[in-house]
Every structure is written in C-alpha cells, then in structure tokens.
Amino acid sequence: MNKKDFIDVVATKTGLTKIDIQKVVDASIDTILSYAPHEKVRIDPLGTFNVKTRAARKGRNPFTNEEVDIPEKTVLAFKTNVKF
To answer: For the whole prediction, is pTM greater than 0.90?
Structure first.
C-alpha cells in the first residue's frame, strides 16, 4: 500500500473527501518529521518515531570486493507497538 492507496481507503471509510484526507496525512507526516529530531513521537497503538545515529563502519563494494568507509549517518527510525 502506498500513500495514495492509504488516502483512498481512509476517504472511503470516513466519507470525507480525498483532498481533506490528503491534507491530514501530509500535516501528520510533516509534524512527525519536525518533532522527531528533538523528541520521540509516540502514536499509540501504532509505534514510536525517533532519530538514531548509525555509527561509521567499513563496508565492501560487492562488484570489486574493495573495502569502503561508510560515514556516520542520522536516520529516522520507527519501532512498532503492533503484535502480529
């Protein structure tokens, strides 16, 4: 399911217009992205968004087998609370 499919399903379930649902989804994503670098964003029962730093490490080019330095990287992480 992609964002468009998600908006279609929510619009069908709620009876609201796709444009209104798209505004809500976009605003929700923007809010998560703006708060996550500063604090954890917990949405129950879905899960928690937060920023993590991946340490620098050594990697290997699969074509040439040459060793490559991979720099430290900051990423948005999501941990689900949902049990399947």
So the answer is: no
Which residues, including other chains, have CB under 8 Å from residue 68's CB and lie 6 or more apart?
A: 58, 59, 60, 61
Domain count of the fold of the chain? 2
Structure tokens at 78: 């999501």
Domain residues for the domain of 31 are 1-35
CB 25 within 8 A of CB 9: no
Contact 28, 36 (CB under 8 A): no
Spatial contact of 53 and 37, defined as CB atoms under 8 Å apart: no
Task: Answer whether the bond into residue 45 is a cis peptide, omega within 30°.
Answer: yes
pLDDT at 84: 83
Q: How far apart are CA 52 and CA 15, in angstroms?
A: 38
**Tokens 């990287």 sit on residue:** 73
pLDDT score of 60 more than 90: yes
pLDDT of residue 8: 97
